Amino acid sequence: MPTPRPTYDLVIAANRLPVDKVIADDGEVEWRRSPGGLVTAMESVMRSQPGAWVGWAGDAGEAPEPFDEDGIHLHPVPLSTEEVRDYYEGFSNDTLWPIYHDVIVPATFHREWWSSYQTVNQRFAEAVAEVAAEGATVWVQDYQLQLVPTLLRKLRPDVRIGWFNHIPFPPVELFAQLPWRAQLLDGLLGADFLGFQRQADARNFVRACRQLLGAQTKRDRVTVEGSRRQVRAAAIPISVDFNGLEALAKRPDVMARAREIRASLGDPEVLMLGVDRLDYTKGIRHRLKAYEELLSERRIGPPEVTLVQVATPSRERVDAYRILRGEIEQTVGRINGELGKIGAPAVHYLHHSYPREEMAALFQAADVMLVTPLRDGMNLVAKEYVTCRHDLGGALVLSEFTGAWHELHQAFACNPHDIEGLKQTILRAINTPAKDKQRIMKALRRRVSDHDVQRWAARYLAALAAAPDLPQAEPRNPPTPHEVETPLMPSPSEHSAAGAKGSPS
Ligand code: ADP
Ligand code: F6P
């Protein structure tokens, strides 16, 4: 008789496992850290508590056998070549992703993609049902798995189900474009608690249930039709492992590497840095446009000022991503060709993934961090930058269209669509006196250290355990006004269905 599989009291379900299976040129199997903020955050949460992680291993075909890694039980879910194309690249990243990010590029709708999304969500629900212990807590992650809560509830009514959206939830006028809008909302309403990055996202969800399903809603609660069940939808913004990352950034070898990076760039007076997945939501073209104009107008220039742009490869077979890569690389080539100097390029462009130590060193080396997304659920890079600046050096330029901006108001705020304004903000970030920048950095660091990823997970799990009611008490400090208030400045998507458009002008 085969031995029964072990089961777990805490199960995470996410599209990706924290590691990707990669076949090296010599045919050897290698495991590499998966890209993206979800993995960064969830990995540090799961390292400190026993549990299982159900997800895709990152390549098409049969799934590897379940295995344990650094105290986490990893349970791979297989995806066929067609499912990678239709469920992951198609429905998740070419239908949902654009709709959930203000339609910066047009969304594509295909019925076969939807069908594949349903099939894969069912497979995830079955895999979770297999590893969840009686009465377990199941924490489903992100937009790729929106049908899992209801599918899982049918299979395992005994488990408590939470879902957290790492990306924005769109205004109803955009969400309504989805031909499968009602099924997606029904899928989510299988959860006991739904977590979002911003209050506006939670409100968008509740409004969508009211307007598109005719559901009864009261404040942050939705009553599920045909049952007395209530589902609560609230904002619990994600964060970084402040203590762990700060300790890494304080390591002598990492600090030495930061100095070495600056030296290898010719010890510029001002080193600017961008770190993003190569995604059209990140506003990389807008950033380059502002930088190029500042150089052409001779307001800044190499070798005194230089820019390092790290652009992590992402979703490279989706057209919009392929086109973006071409545009960025052409722009970098043009800027360097026209405005660089021998031995002093204006942009150092790196299309790689790096170890955490190297990222921490880069953050420490940078005088100005450019975070300019057109729309971003949170943007952990912004929080990682301030975490690494234990020296209180550096300045953060931060788009108002990131979740992070709703917590990090003291940063040098920018609207990336406003190229003239972005140029002014970059100059301000460069020229503000060091003492003032230190004061700002101190405030930013206090916010992130008080609201780290451990606190986020504790708050989320307490809200899930208490749902549909509010949790009894906060695990640590009570939420600050930013968490309970309406955002100070409504974003364009809250005003209009047209959304933002992607071209810098
Ligand atoms: P997203 O989830 O959209 O990718 P975030 O900014 O929230 O955006 O998270 C990105 C995560 O990926 C951060 O933890 C960041 O440090 C990491 N990261 C980004 N680029 C690289 C890279 N080139 N090498 C290693 N890690 C990277
Ligand atoms: O949070 C946004 C997100 O889509 C995560 O779900 C994902 O892990 C990350 O960005 C990277 O994207 P992908 O898994 O498609 O490479």
TrEMBL record:
Q: Which InterPro entries match?
A: Glyco_trans_20
Q: Which domain of life is it from?
A: Bacteria
Query: What's any GO biological process attached to this entry?
Result: trehalose biosynthetic process
List the GO cellular component terms.
Answer: cytosol
TM annotation in the entry: none
What Pfam families does the entry give?
A: Glyco_transf_20
Stretches the record annotates as Disordered? 467-505
Q: Which GO molecular-function terms appear in the entry?
A: alpha,alpha-trehalose-phosphate synthase (UDP-forming) activity; trehalose-phosphatase activity
**Gene3D superfamilies given in the database record:** Glycogen Phosphorylase B
* Coiled-coil ranges from the UniProt annotation: none
Write out the similarity annotation: Belongs to the glycosyltransferase 20 family.
Supply the name of the protein: Uncharacterized protein
Q: Which organism is it from?
A: Terrabacter aerolatus
Q: Provide the organism lineage as a comma list.
A: Bacteria, Bacillati, Actinomycetota, Actinomycetes, Micrococcales
